[in-house]
Structure formats: C-alpha cells, structure tokens
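Duplicate of #3305? Posting structure anyway:
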C-alpha cells in the first residue's frame, strides 16, 4: 500500500501507481484505485488537451489494455466515447483500474518514455472520474531499473520523493513528472526554492545558469510584486536539436539543444525561453483570460485573448533579459525587429485580426498548412508587437512614470488575488486605459480587431527611434515563392499571396525544373539578369507531368527592417527610452 491523502471516513479517495516494466518499449503502466464510491456508474475520462497548448491532442489514442475490477472480480467497463470509459460500479465502494499508456512523442506537452528516462505529461497520463475534478489524489512512482530521481512540483507525501499528492485535478494536470537520472541543481530567488532538472546532458555551466536564471526570477517577481510559489521546477529536455516550452502553475518543461549553451546566441535563446515560460506563472496561470479556467478537459476552451496571454509573454521574454542586462540594448532592438520582420513578411497579417488568431488557435495555429503564411498571423509575434506599442504608449503618456509593468501588476492584484477569477476582454482593455490615461478604442479597432497597417514610427518615435526598411529602395525580381532543394530537386513549399507565382499559377509541391529553358541548379541565382516586369517561361513537374507556365516577374516585396535612433531626440523621448530600455 502507498499513502493516500487523509480524508474524512467515507469520502472518495483516489490514488495512482505508475510503473515502467516496459520502459524500453515506451510504455507507462497506470493502476488507479478509487474508494468511497456510492454510485451505480463511474465514468473515467482522459483529457483531450493540456492547458497552455491550444490543440485537441486526443491523449486517449495512446491508451490500451483498459480494465476495471472490484474485490470479487472484473467489472464491465466499455468505452462509450473517444475519451470516456463507463464502469458499472453498482454494489461496489472501491474499484481498481489498470491501463497502459504508449509514450513516444517528443515534445513539451506529450509523454515520452524509454530506458533512459520517463517524462509524464500529466493530462495524457492520468484519467479522472467525471464530475470529480475537485478531488485530491496521490501518485506513487515505481521507477524503472537504475532510475533514482523524480522531478515535479507536486508535493511529497511523508518526504518520499516517489509519492506525490495533488489537491485537485487542475493541479495534477498542471504538474508534469520527470523520472530518471536527471542532473538536478537549484538556487533560491525571490524567496522561492528553484529546482532545475537537466535531462539528456549538455554543455551548460550550472553556476552561470543559477546566477542568470535567478536574475530573471527576481526581475519578473518585481513586476508582479510577489512570487506565489514555495518551490518551482524547471524540467529541461536537452536534445541534439530541441526547443519549445510549456508553462505550468509551479513548473515548466523546456526543450533545448544540448550543445548550444556555450555560444552567445544559443545561450540567450535559452534564457529567453526561461524568461518566457517563467513569466507565465503569473500571466496565464494566475492572471488569465476568463475562459481559461475552470477548464473543460473534453473540448476546446475559446478565448480571444491569447495575444495577451502568449503575446505579452513573448514581449516580456526579451524585455526581461534587457532589464536584467543579460542582453545589450542593441540585442534587444534586434529581437524586436526580428518579430516585426516576421509578421510584416507574412501576407496573413492582412487577413487575420489578432483577436481572431487567438480564438482560432485550436484549428489554425497548431495545424499550419502550406497556405497558412497567407491566411494566419501569430498571436505570439503580433501580440508581442502589440505589447511593445502599448508599453511605449503608457510610458510616453505618463512621461516615464508608468509602464506596462504597472498594468500587469494591477490586473494580477485585481483579478487573480481580489476577485479570484479571470478577466474579460473589456476588463483588460480598461486596465490598459487606466494607466495610459486615455481611451484605447481606436488602438483596439485598428490592431486587435482590425487589419490596419501598424504605425510603428508613431510608437517608436516616443522613444526617439524610427523603423527603416533596408530594402525599400531595391527593385529585386521575385517569383513570390519559397523553394527547398531536395535530392537535387527544387521543390516549391509556399506561394505568397499576390506574388508572381500566386497570380500565374505556380503551385506548392511543383518541382521547378527550368526558367526560359535553362535548368534551375541554384535557387539563389535563378533570376540573375531578370528584372520586375520581365515575362519568363517557368517549367515545372507537377504530379509527375511536365508543365510550362508563362510568368510575369514582380518586384520582391520582402521587407527587412532595422530600428535607428532619431537625430536630436527631445528630453521626453530620452526619458521614454531610458524607462523602456532600462538605460
């Protein structure tokens, strides 16, 4: 027997035992014990998604060998929907359920098990009894041979690292578990104990990471005025090539490239990921859109505010590195221009408003196709730009006295701490207006709900900067297509809206074989000697058949922005600049 959370006699008790008898084949075995039942039917469900990653992932697809039993034998337990098993419990106060979970998808939001380690994404591992999301549970881990550590934010039972407890299912599903031989080290910051669990090796410097991660923690805590955790866990999966992160209430999972810690760009990218996911412990895990909690684990949970939850977080990940002096002002401005260049070179910026990008994340953001560049905009990138514009507006309007930081703290205090609920679209807008000291209807109409071209120079001008397109005066020829070289073949991977290829019928998956009869051997030189307006003959192979298309070359409309200082900046512009960039 393993410990259960103490409860009043007769109350429901739920416990899990997770073991890995076939870790080498990527399986986790789960045994779930439920007692204190008083019902004829018990529905057990597996979540279809995990908070923080807005796509229905159908975790039940990885479940097999489901069975249910009581003291006197097997119980009927048919599957009644894609993620629900119905157990006939009449006459039984306790049942034991067993099932296996196949774990072989590498990402921060999916479980992965092999002989080296086990990573359990909780929403894809633990079933829950329907209508009992409020119930506590315990999780007992039986490690695979040679594994000796567990890293998770779930609290220990009786100081046993292999037995953990969750006060309810929202917290269980928000607490991933790493089991193995991870390299564990820690640091204290903002009155909180931080654990870093490094999996997969890497050329990281522990002492440097402790110092720099602590700076990030302290800076972000200062924005919100408190750090609500007792302890927090960074689970870092190091791969040959890795990336991405997923936030949780008191932990995060990061993907990283194990050999990138020693080069400046790689290290700064990792610190940016740390800053991004850690910022989420306030922004979205506690200060949240009203639709994001209590969660519906059976269906999509729609909100138009992911541009705040994710976009503002993307804005702050670079700003925090700047405010801690972990990157230079020039590095910071380059990061900003990178985001601007990304969205301004995406035709979808003229098609999908920012609020709509948030709402449609479930069907578009995580399911991109060959035409997404023409129809979608990232609520991360454009949301980060919106955060920058609003920050500069507030700093300018208050003559350097206030910033977006003040909005974030006010909203956290008001809606998370005082009201104990999420905010509506209107309430967040009112919070911004409170500190900008002005009505933001026009801003929202243009940039959040509309498709107006962003007036970057208005906002950057507040801080004494201007945005300059380095390609504005060029007249480069372009086909408006993206190509990759695959075994010597030049394959079209994207056709940009309103470009030459779009207008004259070049398709994605076409093999571009010749231009004016000359074989295409080098993508970079295939238009040498050509100019916008020239009419050319483009030979392609489509579905195995040759095809020749008459195409009129157009000017390459790609932009390449940089941020330059304005000459003769005023005292107010310099004050805004100082506040914004922490100069």
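Output from current build:
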């Amino acid at each position: 027997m393993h410990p259960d959370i103490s409860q009043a006699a007769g109350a429901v008790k739920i416990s899990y035992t997770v073991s890995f008898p076939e870790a080498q084949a990527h399986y986790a075995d789960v045994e779930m014990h439920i007692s204190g039942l008083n019902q004829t039917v018990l529905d057990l469900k597996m979540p279809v998604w995990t908070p923080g990653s807005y796509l229905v992932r159908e975790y039940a697809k990885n479940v097999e060998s489901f069975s249910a039993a009581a003291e006197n034998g097997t119980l009927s337990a048919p599957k009644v929907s894609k993620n629900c098993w119905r157990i006939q419990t009449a006459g039984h106060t306790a049942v034991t359920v067993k099932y296996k979970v196949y774990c072989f998808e590498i990402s921060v939001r999916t479980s992965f098990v092999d002989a080296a380690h086990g990573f359990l994404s909780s929403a894809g591992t633990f079933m829950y009894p329907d209508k009992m999301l409020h119930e506590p549970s315990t999780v007992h881990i039986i490690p695979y041979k040679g594994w000796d550590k567990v890293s998770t934010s779930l609290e220990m039972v009786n100081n046993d690292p292999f037995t953990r407890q969750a006060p309810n299912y929202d917290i269980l599903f928000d607490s991933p578990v790493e089991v193995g031989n991870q390299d564990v080290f820690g640091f204290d910051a903002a009155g909180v104990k931080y654990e870093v669990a490094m999996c997969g090796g890497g050329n990281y410097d522990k002492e440097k990471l402790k110092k720099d991660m602590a700076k990030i923690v302290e800076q972000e805590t200062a924005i919100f005025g408190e750090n609500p955790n007792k302890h927090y866990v960074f689970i870092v999966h190091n791969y040959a090539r890795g990336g991405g992160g997923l936030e949780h209430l008191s932990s995060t999972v990061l993907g990283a490239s194990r050999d990138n810690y020693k080069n400046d760009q790689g290290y700064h990218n990792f610190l940016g990921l740390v800053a991004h996911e850690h910022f989420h412990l306030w922004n979205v895990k506690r200060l949240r859109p009203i639709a994001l909690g209590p969660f519906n684990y059976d269906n999509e949970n729609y909100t138009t505010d992911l541009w705040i939850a994710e976009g503002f977080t993307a804005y702050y990940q670079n700003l925090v590195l700047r405010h801690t002096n972990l990157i230079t002002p020039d590095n910071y401005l380059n990061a900003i221009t990178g985001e601007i260049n990304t969205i301004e070179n995406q035709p979808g910026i003229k098609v999908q408003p920012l609020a709509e990008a948030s709402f449609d994340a479930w069907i578009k953001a995580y399911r991109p196709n060959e035409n997404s560049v023409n129809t979608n905009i990232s609520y991360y990138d454009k949301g980060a730009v919106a955060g920058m514009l609003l920050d500069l507006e507030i700093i300018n309007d208050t003559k350097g006295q206030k910033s977006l930081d003040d909005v974030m703290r006010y909203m956290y205090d008001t809606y998370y701490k005082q009201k104990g609920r999420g905010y509506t679209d209107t309430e967040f807008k009112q919070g911004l207006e409170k500190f900008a000291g002005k009505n933001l209807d026009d801003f929202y109409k243009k940039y959040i709900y509309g498709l107006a071209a962003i007036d970057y120079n208005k906002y950057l001008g507040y801080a004494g900067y201007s945005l300059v397109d380095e390609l504005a005066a060029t007249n480069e020829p372009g086909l408006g297509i993206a190509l990759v070289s695959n075994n010597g073949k030049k394959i079209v991977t994207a056709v940009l809206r309103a470009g030459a290829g779009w207008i004259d019928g070049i398709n994605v998956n076409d093999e571009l074989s010749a231009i004016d009869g000359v074989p295409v051997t080098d993508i970079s030189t295939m238009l040498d000697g050509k100019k916008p307006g020239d009419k050319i003959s483009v030979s392609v192979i489509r579905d195995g058949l040759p095809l020749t298309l008459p195409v009129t070359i157009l000017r390459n409309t790609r932009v390449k922005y940089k941020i330059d200082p304005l000459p003769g900046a005023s005292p107010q512009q310099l004050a805004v600049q100082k506040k914004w960039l922490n100069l």
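Confirmed duplicate; merging threads. The chain has four domains: 13-105+118-144, 183-279, 306-471+562-581, 477-555. Residues 1-9 have pLDDT under 50 and may be disordered.
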